[in-house]
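TL;DR need C-alpha cells for one chain.
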Amino acid sequence: VGDFNNDARLDIVVVNANSNNVGLLLANDDGSFGAQVTYSTGVGPYSVAAGDFNDDSRLDIIVANYYSYNISVLLQYNRGALAKNMTYASGGGSSLRYIALADLNNDSHPDLVAANYGTNDVSVLFDLGNATFRSQTTPMPSSNSHPSSVAIADYNGDQQLDIAVINYVSTNVDLMIGNGNDTCITQINNGYHFVSSPFLLTAGDFDNDGRSEIVVGFDDNDNIDVLFSYNIGSFTIARSYSTGSNPASGGGS
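>> reply
TL;DR here they are.
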C-alpha cells in the first residue's frame, strides 16, 4: 500500500505469483480502485515492497522472485506508471521469500533485506540513492536453517535498526544487530526454538519500552507467538495466541 501517483490517496500493489507480474490498483475519489495494471517481474514473484529508490519523490517497487532467484526493481516514471529498471541476482537456488525495507545505514535511502530460503543466507542491498544497490550477504549459523522471513526494527534499544530472521527448518530466530553503517551486521543466535516451523514474521514495540517485539506465524498450526525483547538482543519465551486456520499474513510498524 502506498501513494503511487501523488494524489494523496493510498493505492494497492499486489503480487501475482502464477502470472509473473505485479498489479497496481490506483485509488479513486470515492474509495474504490481502478482496474489492475500489471507489470512484468521475474519468475514466481513472492513478495513486494515500496520505497523511493532514486530520490525523485515517487514510490518505486521492489519484488523478490522465488523461481528466478533474483530481485526486480520497478521505477515509477509518471503518476503511477512503472518501468522495470534493473534485476539483481540473489544467487542460484536462493529461492527468495520475504523482503523488508528500511534505512539501515542512516543515509536517508531505503535499504533492502531479503530472506534467501534456498541458500541459507540473508541478502542486504544498500540503496545508493540512484536506483542502484550494493549487495552484502550474511550466512545463517546453520547450513540447514532455510530463512523464511525477516523483520527490521530496533530490538535492543540503541536507536539503530536490527534484523530479525526466522528459520523454517532449524525452527529458530536469529538477530543481526545493526551499527547504523554499511558494516552493521553482527549475528546473535538466541537459542530459542519453536515447536513448529516458523513461516511469517513482523515486528512492533507492543509494550512501549523502546525495544521491538516480534510476532511469528507458523506453517503447520493455528496460532501466533509473540516474543518480547529484553536485555541486549534477546527474547523471552513466546506467548501464544490462537488465530484462525493457517494464518498467512500479518503487518506491523
